[in-house]
């Protein structure tokens, strides 16, 4: 009997190690990995379509959130450079890549939007229209990003957004006479919620007009 108990105890020690991970540990690890995929900065390849200033802002915020020291920040930056950006990085001197301030300045000097491109963005901001399937929030965010690239003030952004909103939304917002982007966005959201009702009303009117035209033909 005593021998059987000793065997059972030995078996428990072999198959149930005290430090084995529990299901909750696995769940915590999965949550951490999911968070990393969500908030980690993307790779930067140096294409004209990328916003270097916004990318660097997110990179700095991520490194601050993780508490990275300069050495780890430099290492992560180098890993995230791909394509032509990686080629640019390889051509830099050891002095430039050795400190974060020097590398950051070199990055901005190379990839920050040139001054002459600001004029193109200024024209673009007044020519960008809200898409038929685009939400008010997505459209306003896109316009604010364009505005940051040319350092436009809020008044200019309000006029540009109002100019690009879908007609029934723009009419509603104009009647409210918003004095800030917050007021404009709130009014545009309200107008957006009424859009299905407007579409349904238009459909009813079209049906009624078709009926009248049919009667006139008889």
Report on the structure:
With 218 residues, this protein is an all-alpha fold. Among the domains are: 50-112, no CATH class; 115-197, Non-ribosomal Peptide Synthetase Peptidyl Carrier Protein, Chain A (Orthogonal Bundle), CATH 1.10.1200. 76% of the residues lie in helices and 0% in strands. It has 13 helices and no strands.
Please sum up the structure shown.
Among the domains are: 50-112, no CATH class; 115-197, Non-ribosomal Peptide Synthetase Peptidyl Carrier Protein, Chain A (Orthogonal Bundle), CATH 1.10.1200. The chain has helices at residues 2-15, 23-39, 52-66, 70-80, 83-90, 94-97, 100-111, 115-127, 136-150, 154-164, 167-176, 181-193, 195-217. The protein is an all-alpha fold and 218 residues long.
Descriptive key words:
mainly alpha; Non-ribosomal Peptide Synthetase Peptidyl Carrier Protein, Chain A; 0% strand; elongated
Question: What's the count of strands?
Answer: 0
> CATH topology of the domain at 115-197, what is it called?
Non-ribosomal Peptide Synthetase Peptidyl Carrier Protein, Chain A
Shape: elongated
What is the typical, i.e. mean, pLDDT? 78
Biggest sheet record:
none
Order of helices and strands: HHHHHHHHHHHHH
- Rounded to an integer in angstroms, the radius of gyration calculated over CA atoms is 29 Å
Strand content: under 5%
SS-derived structural category: mainly alpha
Share of helical residues: over 70%
The termini sit apart by: 106 Å
Low-confidence region ranges: 1-18, 197-202
Number of helices: 13
CATH architecture of the domain at 115-197: Orthogonal Bundle
Which CATH top level class of the domain at 115-197 fits? Mainly Alpha
């Amino acid at each position: 009997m005593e021998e059987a108990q000793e065997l059972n105890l030995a078996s428990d020690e072999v198959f149930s190690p005290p430090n084995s991970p529990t299901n909750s540990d696995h769940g915590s690890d999965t949550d951490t990995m999911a968070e990393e995929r969500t908030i980690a900065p993307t790779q930067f390849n140096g294409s004209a379509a990328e916003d270097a200033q916004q990318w660097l802002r997110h990179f700095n915020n991520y490194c601050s959130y993780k508490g990275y020291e300069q050495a780890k920040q430099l290492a992560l930056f180098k890993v995230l450079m791909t394509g032509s950006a990686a080629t640019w990085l390889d051509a830099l001197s050891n002095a430039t890549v050795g400190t974060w301030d020097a590398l950051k300045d070199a990055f901005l000097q190379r990839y920050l939007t040139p001054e002459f491109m600001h004029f193109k963005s200024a024209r673009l901001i007044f020519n960008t229209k809200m898409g038929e399937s685009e939400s008010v929030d997505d459209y306003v965010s896109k316009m604010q990003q364009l505005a940051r690239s040319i350092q436009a003030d809020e008044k200019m952004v309000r006029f540009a957004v109002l100019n690009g909103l879908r007609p029934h939304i723009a009419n509603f917002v104009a009647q409210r006479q918003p004095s800030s982007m917050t007021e404009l966005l709130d009014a545009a959201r309200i107008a957006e919620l009424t859009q299905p009702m407007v579409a349904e009303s238009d459909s009813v009117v079209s049906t009624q007009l078709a009926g009248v035209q049919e009667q006139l033909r008889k």
